[in-house]
Specification:
Layout: H1 3-18, E1 27-32, E2 35-42, H2 45-56, E3 63-66, E4 69-70, H3 80-93, E5 102-107, E6 110-117, H4 120-130, E7 138-141, E8 144-145, H5 154-164, E9 173-178, E10 181-188, H6 191-203, E11 209-212, E12 215-216
Parallel strand pairs: 2-3, 2-4, 6-7, 6-8, 10-11, 10-12
Antiparallel strand pairs: 1-2, 5-6, 9-10
Length: 217
């Protein structure tokens, strides 16, 4: 490991230690050419997601290899049927998730969401709603986005959203639209700007797929 990799490794480790909502005592970090590998184990799936999100915030991180395992404490091990029942209740109470649009399957603590929604934000909201449930080891979001409308001005809407965002230099991002598929290109300063651009693309009406080719650096 060269000096640059060691510095990046240290920055990621410091960010994990600083993040109050994740127990990172047993998380290992290796950096190589901007690619950060997270390994070890955490006590919940929420901790795993938070650890990855914290690593992405660090300057110089270009990609994440997520190898963290979820080791549930014995008192948090819950039956699959109980986890599924809790998930259905949470989804039913979530105003951002269409009623009865999501089917839940839980097998050995791993939850799979299936069904069809109109918007990407509904797909994301369903996953966010369930991934903090006690007892789950992971979530596979298989929800399909099938919008009822396909507006012709998808590109214009995305461009306006990027220009409104103070955290992003919109001129550095290129946008190509083919039906409901959006391809983002260009180069931004850091990983956070890349995520901002991708979120803006997903938020546009009619978008069913986003291919993020934006470079960082």
């Amino acid at each position: 490991m060269n000096e640059s990799d060691r510095r990046l490794q240290k920055r990621v480790q410091d960010e994990l230690d600083w993040e109050p909502s994740v127990d990172a005592r047993h998380v290992g970090v290796v950096a190589s050419g901007g690619v950060v590998t997270l390994s070890g184990h955490v006590p919940s799936f929420a901790d795993k997601i938070t650890a990855e999100r914290a690593a992405r915030r660090v300057r110089g991180v270009k990609a994440i290899a997520q190898e963290i395992e979820v080791h549930l404490p014995s008192e948090q091990q819950t039956g699959d049927d109980e986890i599924a029942a809790r998930a259905l209740k949470i989804l039913a109470w979530n105003a951002s998730v269409p009623k009865e649009a999501v089917t839940v399957k839980v097998e050995k603590g791993w939850m799979t969401l299936t069904g069809t929604v109109d918007w990407q934000y509904e797909r994301d909201a369903a996953e966010r709603a369930v991934r903090k449930l006690t007892g789950i080891r992971g979530v596979s979001n298989m929800l399909v986005v099938e919008p009822k409308v396909q507006p012709a001005d998808v590109r214009r809407r995305i461009e306006k959203a990027l220009r409104r965002d103070a955290e992003l230099d919109a001129a550095r991002v290129t946008i190509d639209v083919e039906g409901g598929r959006v391809v983002l290109g260009g180069r931004v300063h850091n990983w956070h700007e890349r995520e901002v651009a991708e979120r803006a693309a997903w938020a546009a009406p009619g978008v069913t797929q986003v291919e993020d080719r934006i470079s960082v650096g």
